[in-house]
Design a protein that fits this description.
The radius of gyration is 20 Å and the shape is globular. With 354 residues, the protein is α/β, with parallel strands linked by helices. It has 13 helices and twelve strands. 41% of the residues lie in helices and 16% in strands.
Length: 354
């Protein structure tokens, strides 16, 4: 049951080996605003490649990632492109293989995506999002039906190494197991959505046999709030939460002035968009926040049951994602963003009322 189906065809397995065997400088990338799945998959893959191939391996992300992920094994070695272009650009240009994790479009890496696009070197994509960009890589390992990129990667490693059942836990190191579990946990809301397949828990069992402490991992990610963040959460729920009962929708907005007022750090807004879904009858939660680096509004969508948050994100906010977790951006003011959200909700009212 662990291998519901092979992730690679015979031809792709050969291609994987050939691409890795011929590489001496490998760069692993993730999307802008890296989350737990992005950091988990890139750090786990980097560690596994270093152990199995004679190559220099470096993880490069487009911009900073949340403070609550900096404890993860290998996170201290990640290079951040934004703000460090002069140091990081030569590393990317030296690569003779680029492996992109947790995104299916080069634009998801912003300016780093332009660098990768212009660099004439083979690429591999490992992801679980819908509709990867045509021609994005020579080898595409894309499985939207799986919970996370970390699940895709773990299954890929097990498939490539094909261990005997009694040797499953020896395929991964403890640190690799920690990274993979963190990615799976964060991309499923601690296994509260996109995680009903029995195979996921078989994979978790293997990770537990590697000696990980899943309770500590949970605390490292979710129990790291500052007092200011807790106060900010109360402010957002009491002052900024707008509930549209007839549309079964909730909206929260955050400006950079509010960010400064509460001393909000990178990653402190993580999880806020999920909270309104605890309100009885709510099907869709939307969180709008001013971006700290670009003149745009970042959009986060979370939904329950069959409401297609990804379709709304693609149609109205130039984004995408998963059925119940998606995002995008709006280039304009907060008032314009709220107006567009109202238009989107009105368009999808039949599904929200169903």
């Amino acid at each position: 049951m662990l291998t519901e189906y092979p992730l690679l065809t015979t031809e792709q397995r050969t291609q994987w080996r050939q691409m890795l065997d011929g590489a001496r400088h490998i760069v692993i990338t993730a999307h802008r605003g890296p989350d737990g799945d992005a950091i988990g998959s890139t750090t786990a893959l980097a560690s596994w490649l270093r152990r199995n191939w004679d190559a220099d391996v470096q993880v490069v992300v487009p911009n900073i990632f949340p403070d609550f992920l900096k404890w993860m094994p290998g996170a201290e070695s990640i290079l951040v492109y934004a703000g460090h272009e002069s140091e990081v650009l030569p590393v990317v240009r030296q690569a003779d293989l680029v492996i992109m994790c947790d995104h299916g479009e080069l634009r998801r890496m912003w300016t780093l995506g332009d660098v990768v696009r212009d660099h004439p070197t083979p690429r591999i994509m490992i992801d679980h999002h819908l509709d990867p960009e045509p021609g994005i890589a020579e080898l595409v390992v894309s499985h939207p039906e799986l919970s996370s990129t970390c699940e895709v990667l773990m299954r890929l490693i097990l498939e490539l190494e094909a261990p005997a059942p009694a040797e499953l836990s020896t395929v991964l190191t403890h640190d690799e197991a920690v990274s993979l579990y963190t990615g799976m946990m964060t991309d499923t809301g601690a296994f509260t959505y996109a995680s009903s397949r029995p195979e996921i828990f078989q994979l978790i069992s293997i990770l537990l046999s590697c000696g990980i402490d899943k309770d500590k991992i949970y605390r490292n990610v979710f129990f790291t709030y500052s007092a200011q963040r807790m106060k900010f959460q109360g402010y957002m729920l009491y002052v900024k939460l707008d509930v549209w009962k007839k549309a079964h929708t909730a909206l929260m907005t955050m400006t950079n002035a509010e960010r400064r007022r509460f001393g909000i750090l990178n990653g402190d807004t993580e999880g806020l968009v999920n909270m309104p879904l605890q309100i009885l009858g709510t099907k869709l939660s939307i969180f709008l926040r001013e971006d700290t680096e670009q003149p745009c509004i970042r959009v986060s969508l979370r939904s329950v049951d069959d409401f297609p948050a990804n379709e709304m994100a693609a149609e109205f906010f130039g984004g995408g994602g998963h059925k119940n977790a998606a995002g995008g951006e709006i280039w304009g003011t907060m008032d314009e963003a709220v107006a567009l959200v109202k238009k989107a909700v009105q368009k999808y009212m039949p599904l929200l009322k169903a």
